[in-house]
Amino acid sequence: MADKTWIQKLLDNIADLITRTKGYLTTFKQETAVATDVNGTTWKDLLDKSTITKPTKICGFKVTVAGTWAGKAQVRITDGAGTKIFPFLDQYEQDIHFTSETQVAFNFPVMVPVADGYKFQFRSTDGADGDGETLQLNNLDVIEIG
């Protein structure tokens, strides 16, 4: 009978632990977005996560540049309202800061509070780029906290 009491206490402790930690687990995700035509030198949302439910860390990305771009692809991350939060430069530019179809890992994750959300945006260095010149988000490494 003593064994049953010990086992019951253990089960009660496990149930209590699960109840107290529910919702506090970290989730590792890879966000993607389908290829989208560029709109010249105008910033365009490739992935819009203006509304998020957990604080988020963005750790890196991989994009595919396709078509016959006259210019180079540029990317940045903004908060949900459109204020740039990454990079410290004006933007990351193809063949300088990233290469098409190659994973980019950030030295420091981009921290995004729940209240802000985020957008992954892109544009071209050439205003003539448009239909047929696309950027696809193959992978955005995201850690959701909580």
Description:
With 146 residues, this protein is mostly beta strands. 14% of the residues lie in helices and 46% in strands. It contains one helix and nine strands; from the N terminus they run αβββββββββ. The strands form two sheets. Strands 2, 4, 5, 6 and 8 form a five-stranded antiparallel β-sheet that branches. It has a four-stranded antiparallel β-sheet with strand order 1-9-3-7, with no helix packed on it. Strand 4 and strand 5 (84-86) form a beta hairpin. The protein is elongated and about 75 Å long. It starts with a helix and ends with a strand. The relative contact order is 0.33.
The main sheet comes to:
5 strands, antiparallel
Top CATH class = Mainly Beta
Helicity, as a percent range: 10-25%
**Separation of the first and last Cα atoms:** 40 Å
